[in-house]
């Protein structure tokens, strides 16, 4: 920062220590001039709350709390809105924001993702102006909304695909290993497998819409 003539804002500086497996507890502090920065359990970066266990529990809790309040405000004016207007409002303020940095949640257990799914379920009920006890699977199918887990899967595959084709961030491209397709590989493969092969360097035609359609069928038409 000194080399670029930048000044560090100590009031907004946080130290987050991510221990490795079987790593002993360390009492870390950083001295920056007269100030001492001590470790914290959570730190916010670009709107995402990171915790020292990378469980994203704090981030999911903050997200659900914010969107629950948003849905509450929309519900107050729902009698004055048409179903279409409600859908546009919910998609703009809630469901689209559920996708923000959701690839970070890949690999988390279903119980950790469940609070976000409950928010999406509440959003679907609000669009159709139905009570809390209403079954949401047909509502999500009608709205053509992928469940939260599928949306995370979709975002992760798209990032991997762009990295394999040279249009993704360099730090992700460096993690992609070339893959040579075997002659015995079946020609009939699923869309998810196509995107996975593409992420490994195999040239297989794929599109975002095709992948989304495949995931939609996988979750709603089995």
UniProtKB/TrEMBL annotation:
This is Reverse transcriptase. It comes from Champsocephalus gunnari.
């Amino acid at each position: 920062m000194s080399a670029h003539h930048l000044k560090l804002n100590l009031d907004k500086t946080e130290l987050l220590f991510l221990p490795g497996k079987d790593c002993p507890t360390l009492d870390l502090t950083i001295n920056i001039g007269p100030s001492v920065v001590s470790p914290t359990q959570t730190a916010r970066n670009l709107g995402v709350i990171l915790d020292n266990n990378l469980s994203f529990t704090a981030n999911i809790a903050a997200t659900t709390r914010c969107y629950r309040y948003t849905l509450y405000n929309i519900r107050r004016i729902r009698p004055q809105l048409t179903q279409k207007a409600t859908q546009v409002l919910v998609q703009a303020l809630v469901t689209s924001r559920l996708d923000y940095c959701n690839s970070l949640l890949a690999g988390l257990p279903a119980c950790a993702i469940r609070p976000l799914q409950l928010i999406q379920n509440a959003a679907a009920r609000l669009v159709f102006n139905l009570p809390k006890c209403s079954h949401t699977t047909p509502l999500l199918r009608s709205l053509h909304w992928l469940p939260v887990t599928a949306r995370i899967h979709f975002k992760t595959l798209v990032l991997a695909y762009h990295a394999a084709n040279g249009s993704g961030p360099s730090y992700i491209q460096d993690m992609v290993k070339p893959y040579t397709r075997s002659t015995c590989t079946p020609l009939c493969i699923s869309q998810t497998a196509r995107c996975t092969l593409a992420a490994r360097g195999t040239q297989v035609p794929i599109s975002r819409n095709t992948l989304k359609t495949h995931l939609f069928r996988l979750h709603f038409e089995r």
